[in-house]
Design brief:
7 helices
């Protein structure tokens, strides 16, 4: 029995590496596909009448944002662990509700279906749906609204002031 590992032995694969290889084999997802998906999706977002202005008001240099989104999706889709941000605090102050998340998902689903093989698109879309639900729940809660299962968050209409 050896107490110390053999320094010449090949390193054992981590659970994360095993999971990543399995996802890659089952879906065909790789970093190039993630890059194409993120670029294609945000091209659509920027052109969208509903959610485009929300992004345009906050993102002035798209390069770093796209780089972060590629790291995020690598971590989400491939379990790579390369993203170390905190998405919720960045989304809480946004003027969005269920309508905006519906549109975000509509654009994301269309982009994934257009650019990815079916297994990869399904993998991305399933995760995008969870992310949208989580962000919507967080934003609702931050605004004092506790959503029940199946309920959607709707921002209150702006109160009109008499002229």
């Amino acid at each position: 029995m050896t107490l110390f590992p053999d320094p010449n032995a090949p390193p054992t694969e981590s659970r994360r590496d095993t999971a990543r290889r399995q996802i890659e084999a089952e879906t065909g997802i790789d970093e190039a596909m993630i890059s194409a998906l993120v670029d294609g999706f945000y091209d659509r977002v920027r052109a969208d009448a509903l959610i485009g202005p929300i992004f345009d008001e906050r993102i002035h240099d798209w390069g770093p944002h796209l780089d972060q989104m590629k790291l995020f999706w690598s971590s989400v889709a491939l379990m790579s662990g390369v993203y170390h941000g905190r998405p919720m605090p960045k989304h809480l102050p946004l003027p969005v509700d269920g309508h905006h998340f519906d549109r975000w998902l509509e654009l994301f689903r269309a982009t994934a279906r257009d650019l990815c093989p079916p297994a990869a698109a399904d993998h991305f879309i399933e995760r995008a749906e969870r992310i949208a639900e989580s962000l919507e729940l967080g934003i609702a809660g931050a605004n004092g609204v506790l959503l029940r299962k199946g309920e959607r968050y709707r921002r209150p209409a702006a109160a009109s002031t008499p002229a």
